[in-house]
Amino acid sequence: DAGVTQSPTHLIKTRGQQVTLRCSPKSGHDTVSWYQQALGQGPQFIFQYYEEEERQRGNFPDRFSGHQFPNYSSELNVNALLLGDSALYLCASRVASGGLRYEQYFGPGTRLTVT
Amino acid sequence: AQRVTQPEKLLSVFKGAPVELKCNYSYSGSPELFWYVQYSRQRLQLLLRHISRESIKGFTADLNKGETSFHLKKPFAQEEDSAMYYCALTYNTDKLIFGTGTRLQVFP
Predict the structure, then answer these.
(1) CB spacing of B97 vs A35 below 8 angstroms
(2) Measured between beta carbons, which residues in chain A are less than 8 angstroms from residue B51?
(3) Does A42 touch chain B (CB under 8 A)?
(4) How far apart are alpha carbons B39 and B45 in whole angstroms?
(5) Rounded-to-integer distance, Cα A23 and Cα A4, Å
(6) Is the four-CA dihedral B65, B70, B71, B72 of positive or negative sign?
(7) Which of A106, A110, A111 to substitute to test the interface with B, most B CBs within 10 Å?
(8) DSSP assignment, residue A41?
(9) Is some CB atom of chain B closer than 8 A to the CB atom of A110?
(10) Cα A64 from chain centroid?
(11) I need a labelling partner for A62 at 20 to 30 A (CA). Which of B10, B14, B21, B86 fits?
(12) φ and ψ at B41, to 5 degrees?
């Protein structure tokens, strides 16, 4: 099991463009969360998907949207990119059953640079 | 507002010295506290959580509700402990609130 995988590893976009990041959860996991980690900061929660629906959302504008597919994989979409969106985007997955104390597993992240 | 504070950006010690990475939090309820670690060129991973009350890789952390602290300690640091350490909390959700992290450097 490769654990949580994310693609692409890096990408560079221009202000105003749109971007889609992808995440495949760890085998057996059905809940996916996305985090943004700016340079020198800790990760910040964007939103969580379970059963193909957004269940929780952090303090991020509507430009940030997502999707979860029937196979539990997920996408993060960011529209109208700003320079401040440059960051490492992390995906984390866990198993929904067993309560909230199940460990979240993080992916390696996608490094987004907006120029 | 919920907040996690890690006052030290960098902590440097020599091998064999004791280590204490500080973490303070602000939350009115009873959150769950975690320590995550990121070794060089590796992904973020859970080190320990307060509800488990366990020692991982020689590290322990005690939740002090009176002082709202969850400091990470190890009596004798090893070079392989060098990494970025993040304190995080959650309360009945999957939303983890992270601190800004402390880089631990252990010199030989």
Answers:
(1) no
(2) 101
(3) yes
(4) 9
(5) 7
(6) positive
(7) A106
(8) S
(9) no
(10) 10
(11) B86
(12) 60, 25
Q: Which tokens sit at A111?
A: 């490094």
H-helix or E-strand spanning residue B88: strand B83-90
Chain B residues near residue A35 by CB distance under 8 angstroms = 96
Mean pLDDT in chain B?
92
Mean pLDDT by 10 residues, chain B (108 residues): 92 97 88 92 91 84 90 97 96 87 97
Above 90 in pLDDT, residue A95? no
What is the Rg, in whole angstroms, of the alpha carbon atoms belonging to chain A? 13
Q: Does A86 touch chain B (CB under 8 A)?
A: no
Taking CB atoms within 8 Å and a gap of at least 24, the contacts of B42-50 are: B43/A3, B43/A4, B43/A106, B43/A107, B43/A108, B43/A109, B44/A43, B44/A90, B44/A106, B44/B86, B45/A105, B45/A106, B46/A103, B46/A104, B47/B72, B47/B85, B49/A101
Alpha carbons A54 and B24: distance in angstroms, whole number: 30
Transcribe A85-103 into DSSP letters. Answer: G-EEEEEEEE-STT-TTSP
Angstrom CA distances, A66 to A37, A49, A106, A115, B80, stand at 17, 8, 17, 23, 37
